[in-house]
Amino acid sequence: MSSTLLRTSTAARAALRAPGNARLASAGAAGMSFVRGKATLPDLPYDYGALEPAISGKIMELHHKNHHNTYVNSYNTNVEKLDAAVAKSDVAGQIAVQPLINFHGGGHINHSLFWENLAPKSSGGGEPPSGALKQAIDQTYGDLESLKTKFNTTLAAIQGSGWAWLVKDKETGQIMIKTYAYQNRKAEYFSAIWDVVNWKTAEKRFG
Fold first, then answer.
1. 8 A C-beta contact, residue 101 and residue 75
2. Are 176 and 9 in contact (CB under 8 A)?
3. Which CA distances in Å does 87 have to 25, 79, 80, 90, 105?
4. Which of 34, 116, 201, 204 has the highest local Cβ count within 10 Å?
5. Torsional sign, CA 86, 89, 91, 93
6. pTM higher than 0.85, yes or no?
7. What is the distance between the alpha carbons of residues 19 and 1, in angstroms, rounded to a whole number?
8. What letter does residue 128 receive in the DSSP assignment?
9. CA separation (Å) from 29 to 54, 58, 93, 193?
10. What φ, ψ does residue 4 adopt, rounded to 5°?
11. Phi first, then psi: what are they for 122, rounded to 5°?
12. How distant is the alpha carbon of residue 36 from its chain centre?
């Protein structure tokens, strides 16, 4: 079992088919909210343009208002379909809709954590990690720059866009890079995003 410390995507558009509870009873993302069983689009803790020049305000707005919101709406729509299928004892309908709930719910979780993983430079974005997380990075990859190189190389190898995570194995305490492929890619994005990574949030998850 592993916990996500840091996640990022290969482009402004990305998604993940998330395993586990189809109704996402336990989301694990502080910025993500559910109202009476419905997912809601979280407000960003910074303005769309606050991460420039690393990430343009237009890309952030598109990513948040369009892509993330699509996952939220689609999740809610499919939850309603599941409820209707349950009410009618439609087992086939329940089975058919659950992968869609997982997919769109996973996209919602990933994006909610993604926003938390970024911060403007004025709020500490891009500042290197410290403490136990820094020590784990140094022990596993040598140093932060080596981690960035490995992370970017791993992302670039994905055929299309997708997600990459720096995760901690809860049993061994070791950190590792995990990926999930989707579609599209943007190499410049890989390097620029490190300038606004919120390592303080990652440190809290690591601890």
1. yes
2. no
3. 20, 12, 11, 8, 21
4. 116
5. negative
6. no
7. 13
8. P
9. 24, 24, 29, 20
10. -85, 125
11. -70, -15
12. 23
Kindly state the tokens that stand for 181.
Answer: 């492929």
Nearest CA to 76 out of 92, 100, 111 is that of: 100
Residue type, 183: Q
Q: Which residues of 99-110 are buried (b: 16+ CB within 10 A; e: fewer)?
A: ebbbbbbbbbbb
Helix residue spans in 122-207 (DSSP H): 131-141, 144-156, 187-192, 199-206
pLDDT single digits (tens) 94-153: 999 999 999 899 899 989 999 999 999 999 999 999 999 999 999 999 999 999 999 999
Tens digit of pLDDT for each residue in 172-205? 989 999 987 654 445 555 666 787 788 888 888 8
